[in-house]
């Protein structure tokens, strides 16, 4: 078991540094935004939603049905909420467990020798192509599916051995262990058969291609356990009565496949998934030749990733793999070599099965002759010639009936150097080859013409199975199992049965890599055995170098998965548009606006039709108050993807900010008509639609169109999907009812908002405002104090409370509240403006002037800031500055009566001042 522990320890060491990694790439959608992980979500939703939390019957569902994997995420969420450590720990422990189980299977079941089994386990533990599956949390589906895959495979092997233990139903045994298997009750084998199907089901429920283990089990039974030849398959001989035990296994696995497929199709709504053209460009290409040549070439690239995992990427979509549009493309040559090699392997396997079948027949004939000869000896012993010892399977004599033998016993020669080619050494015992055995038989027969026939250990034929035969059988078994493991689990990813949503996905290679590791380990072992002297050292050094290179690449690749920024930077060489677009989002979240903008533009320089990149660039420009550029970006996003609701939503918000309410209203109304059919993220789509209705209602409310706003908010509530939080809609509906004077209805919706989310701050504030206006002062102040208690670091709670106190004439308390709001958000225009107003009311005109000036700088398009600043200048005797501020206010808001009245007073004062008649400064009105 030291090899199993050693390989497991290596897997743990190599992936230890991933425990400190953050969520990355698809983890956001699968973990952070997946409602199915929340404890308040009914656990039954897991069995009706796909891997990303979208209902399977939805037209935009990914159709990835992995409830067991999602259940493990939910368990992580229960233990540690959204702490990534627990999720990464789960992945690493699963990989360690799979490595241990694979190494055990390689040593006990397949390779049967410590060195190649250990090498296969080490290669599997260290292979860099596994990094995405282990370091990426969404890769748990592949690792978990592999665990159940192996358990199903091992259970089926145990079933086969127990099934064939009572009688040799296969053409010949694969090992002495099989031959020594005791006869067991029939029901024992059915336990293992049932377990194999159960684990296959669990593998499929962890990830879809896990069900392919049932096909692997069938291939093992047909080609390894029963050594069926090509002619047996073509003539349907395996379906004859003589093979009823084989048919028992095959039919059970075939029925399992049929049931699991039917189950899978039923839960996905009997419809295939729909993917965007960028996910799998070849699938959407109209040219059949292009699709065929590209799809045939993709397995070549996957094999290359197993052979040389140097260039790895988090995503291979878009043009990461250019389409093959012509037969003259040089890549077609590699495709031909690949499939030619595959055909050669298949031919080798079938030819070896045929040769070994005939060789087994020859051995059986010799055993039959030996049996006849033994019968003669047995009769002799019965007549007193001898009755002591019989020949055992391993070539040693066994004592029978407690009597010492006096007859001839066959005792093999001791071990020797087999350089003469007449025999080989096997387990310390000399066994003769089939050729030398036949030669000795011929010599013995010729000698018997002139001498009486005698039997002795010197001329008695060796009936042990020749080691060349065993060795060839062992190699063939490994080659078949390796090819089956590499090919069958990979078939669903080949676009053969249906189009998949990726070009290359490294984590899909997690299960097929087991076959690769077995094949490489056996090849190195055979090369070592056949290498003379010092060349053995070269082979060992080469194998060690391969392991070191794989381990080093895995260790370094894990650092790419430490953070999203590192991951996206590592993918720029393979998939520049996707990598730059995602990297820009990270840079933007870090506040590196200039770098993020450059990254967005780099992404668009490679692929100009990426709607998400245009949309995200629009958000960056909007936040930078470059509104016209933001509008252009949103419009380009809509042009690339007309149903992108979030782009419509933000376009409407920018237009409303610029005072273009009519245009904003049209955009909002159009966004409200968009549906989510066929979209892979319907939740985000419907969030944009309902948010557009929400903003439309607010726009109508601001314009005093309360009845229209009421209808819009009601429509939004009726169309609201379950994942959209309702408290904001309830609050706005309550506010609209209040402005319509329908106090009872307003209060009912305010209370519903607080029931939906008791800590919802806007509902506290608007409800308090209504209570204050209806003279329920104590209730209003209680709500305002509760809001401050819930969000002591939120500036607007102090502003609302300050306004309430100001309306009650409690100016000093109001000033304290406005000061607190300003301290929390000194860059907020409203907080600054309200503080200036409070200072003016408190008679502190000098400080008020400074804050009005700051407010005008923070929001230069606000006319009231310039008008109030002019009033402060006016009161403080700064007449020229006052005139400039009044003029700017009138430029922004012409014909404002308060500003015009103040300007007339100011100019009258300036005229009197210039003539020396002024005795006082007329008071200016503030706003």
Short characterization:
With about 950 residues, the protein is mainly alpha-helical. Helices cover about 65% and strands about 0% of the residues. The strands form two sheets. The protein has a two-stranded antiparallel sheet with strand order 1-2.
Question: Would you mind describing this structure in some detail?
Answer:
- The strands form two sheets. The chain has a two-stranded antiparallel ribbon.
- The chain is elongated and about 140 Å long.
- It has a domain at 2-277 and 470-557.
- It has 927 residues and is an all-alpha fold.
- The protein is built from 38 helices and four strands.
- Mean pLDDT is 83; it is low at 167-175 and 376-465.
- 64% of the residues lie in helices and 2% in strands.
- A hairpin with a 5-residue loop joins strand 1 and strand 2 (397-399).
What features would you highlight for this structure?
single chain, 927 residues, mainly alpha, two-stranded antiparallel sheet, 4 strands, 64% helix, endoplasmic reticulum, membrane, TMTC_O-mannosyltransferase, transmembrane
